[in-house]
From TrEMBL:
<dbReference type="GO" id="GO:0005506">
    <property type="term" value="F:iron ion binding"/>
</dbReference>
<keyword id="KW-0408">Iron</keyword>
<keyword id="KW-0503">Monooxygenase</keyword>
<dbReference type="Pfam" id="PF00067">
    <property type="entry name" value="p450"/>
</dbReference>
<feature type="region of interest" description="Disordered">
    <location>
        <begin position="367"/>
        <end position="386"/>
    </location>
</feature>
<keyword id="KW-0479">Metal-binding</keyword>
<protein>
    <submittedName>
        <fullName>Cytochrome P450</fullName>
    </submittedName>
</protein>
<dbReference type="GO" id="GO:0020037">
    <property type="term" value="F:heme binding"/>
</dbReference>
<feature type="region of interest" description="Disordered">
    <location>
        <begin position="1"/>
        <end position="23"/>
    </location>
</feature>
<dbReference type="InterPro" id="IPR001128">
    <property type="entry name" value="Cyt_P450"/>
</dbReference>
<keyword id="KW-0560">Oxidoreductase</keyword>
<dbReference type="GO" id="GO:0004497">
    <property type="term" value="F:monooxygenase activity"/>
</dbReference>
<dbReference type="InterPro" id="IPR017972">
    <property type="entry name" value="Cyt_P450_CS"/>
</dbReference>
<dbReference type="GO" id="GO:0016705">
    <property type="term" value="F:oxidoreductase activity, acting on paired donors, with incorporation or reduction of molecular oxygen"/>
</dbReference>
<keyword id="KW-0349">Heme</keyword>
<dbReference type="InterPro" id="IPR002397">
    <property type="entry name" value="Cyt_P450_B"/>
</dbReference>
<dbReference type="InterPro" id="IPR036396">
    <property type="entry name" value="Cyt_P450_sf"/>
</dbReference>
Length: 386
């Protein structure tokens, strides 16, 4: 096979928001070569991907012979810890049934006021600081970290450790040692919280009471780690990369006020880990064109079938709040560096920008109507509304 058939394929430097050209020009079903020399099938057509994801004969179990690990980090981590994502029924069904009631659309919508306060507080800090600023550090990374920390019930005093480990878990270092070590440290930490009942009100403290006979502290800790990785870095990457897209389409930035479905379709930032098909012209006319007004609800950014992303309702709320708050609070926001000068995470599990330098007109920093710094909680307040 040629280099063009090695997965993941290189993206075109001039089109950093697009999938690799090799993904969109190859046959709907073809062989590709992975890092370890294995040659699994690659499926790119929307209808075929849905069919495969919904087929009960297709296994997600990483212990199955020939499972296509997309990089050394994934293989090393999966060998030590099996999460909900790597399970088949009935094990998968049992664990998902435990978590599903905690991530309903209604419950996640109830978190919107708290997420809004966190977003406003973070922007208060960014707007009061240096201009230009790095949006990743000031807003995109800390917002989902604060939300998932509160949701799990991780003590506020441990937030720096929590966020540091989260970054290490999904790094694009070719050496898996650091990621595996971070995974083990986080699992031991979460297991300790559960076993000692040291967690603040949240999923880690709630599940042991309700599921004490069904799950061990270690099993709950593994779930917590999955929720951290899936609920933190994916959303942080989407906020940063999505904002970069919006700022390169300024006429559409002003229209951001509702669902983020077109950004989810257009970016599909998990290209190196979970294969999606959101650029299929049979489903999305002119798929390479970004149009915030497009009806793209049937994208596959969250997967499909029994492994449909459990945290999709939370991610949607966070992204809607993040993009709309940026537009409302900082309507003059622009990139502070040319797009071709940005550094992208080419080999990370979740594709995004390492830094996103932004600037704004310093006179447009007013708070939203009815809001003031003195009557809003700080980002370090660990309570969760709803």
């Amino acid at each position: 096979m040629s280099d063009e058939e090695t997965f993941p394929m290189a993206r075109a430097p001039r089109c950093p928001f697009d999938p690799a050209p090799g993904l969109t020009t190859r046959p709907p079903v073809s062989r590709v070569r992975l890092w370890d020399g294995s040659e699994p099938w690659l499926i790119t057509r929307h209808a075929d991907v849905r069919a495969v994801l919904a087929d009960p004969r297709v296994s997600a179990d990483v212990a199955q012979p020939g499972f296509p690990h997309t990089n050394a980090i994934s293989k090393a981590r999966d060998a030590r810890m099996k999460t909900l994502m790597q399970m088949d029924p009935p094990e998968h069904t049992a664990q998902r049934r435990i978590l599903a009631p905690e991530f309903t659309v209604r419950k996640m919508a109830a978190l919107r006021p708290r997420i809004q306060r966190l977003a406003d507080d973070l922007l208060d800090g960014m707007l009061a600081g240096p201009n230009p600023a790095d949006l990743v550090e000031a807003f995109a990374a800390p917002l989902p970290s604060l939300v998932i920390r509160e949701l799990l019930g991780v003590p506020c005093a441990d937030r720096d450790f929590f966020q540091s480990v989260a970054r290490t878990l999904v790094m694009d270092d070719p050496d898996p040692t650091r990621a595996v070590t971070a995974s083990q440290e986080l699992n031991a930490y979460l297991e300790g919280l559960v076993a000692t009942e040291a967690a603040e009100p949240g999923l880690l403290s709630k599940l042991p009471v309700e599921q004490r006979e069904a799950m061990s502290p270690r099993s709950i800790a593994v779930l917590g780690q999955l929720l951290l990785v899936a609920g933190h870095d994916t959303t942080a990457a989407m906020i940063a990369l999505g904002t970069a897209v919006l700022l390169t389409h300024p006429e559409q930035f002003s229209d951001v006020s509702g669902p983020a479905e077109e950004l989810l379709r257009y970016l599909s930032l998990t290209h190196t880990e979970a294969r999606r098909a959101n650029r299929d012209p049979l489903v999305f006319p002119d798929p390479g064109r970004f149009d915030i007004r497009r009806s793209a609800r049937h994208h596959l950014a969250f997967g499909y079938g029994r492994h449909l992303c459990l945290g999709a309702p939370l991610a949607r709320v966070e992204l809607e709040v993040a993009y709309a708050t940026l537009r409302r609070r900082v309507p003059t926001l622009t990139l502070a560096a040319p797009l071709d000068r940005l550094e992208f995470k080419e080999n990370a599990i979740f594709y995004s920008v390492r830094e996103l330098p932004v600037t704004w007109a310093s006179t447009l920093t007013t708070l939203p109507p009815g809001s003031s710094a003195k009557n809003r909680r700080t980002p370090h307040d660990s309570s969760v509304s709803g």
